[in-house]
């Protein structure tokens, strides 16, 4: 702490809350000289964003976030969280389809009658899997159409094209951009690394209430980022937009 002022935190939300409380107990946030940046692998959800501020198991006598040990507002203002941006509203239609199809063959994942009032949670990883299969199918279709211009598509030819993983992956990379079913525009670089849309969360004054607990603050998006197009691609693909970070007040 004598040489480090900005900490990048990787871990679960409970560990983050504990670390922030420890730093607060050591008075590291007293003068605003320290900052914690937490990177979360999950997608931003307004309903779950408070997990970065306090544990679910709060002391029984705590009715307001200001009653939590230490200086809640001061330490919370010293936290930034980087998460994948929230899916667009159209993502709901996709999750509905996932619930519908997982109840059918071969999954038979039925909704328990005891919990009929609850909706099954669909992870964002379902969208990632869907995107992967769709990208593979698109690349294979493109390669087969190109191959058909030179020779008939016999079973052996189709098998050769479909089993050439290197060529399929390179075709996906060359396409550079695809639209995820979650609504994000995803870009792929020369090495096949993809980067979608990310949001930065910070403390905002917004009332929150649950059972016998309330708070005047919540973690909300203050900036959104997208991958910058490499310069050599901008020179050869003038029709593509070079997207840069967009900040919100």
Automatic annotation (TrEMBL):
InterPro entries, per the entry: ANF_lig-bd_rcpt, Peripla_BP_I
Q: Where is this region: Disordered?
A: 228-249
Which UniProt key words apply to this protein?
Answer: Membrane, Transmembrane, Transmembrane helix
Pfam families given for it?
Answer: ANF_receptor (PF01094)
Name the domain of life.
Answer: Eukaryota
Start and end residues of each Receptor ligand binding region domain = 118-205
Q: Name one GO cellular component term.
A: membrane
Q: What subcellular locations does the record give?
A: Membrane
- Put simply, this protein is called Receptor ligand binding region domain-containing protein
Q: Which organism is it from?
A: Anopheles melas
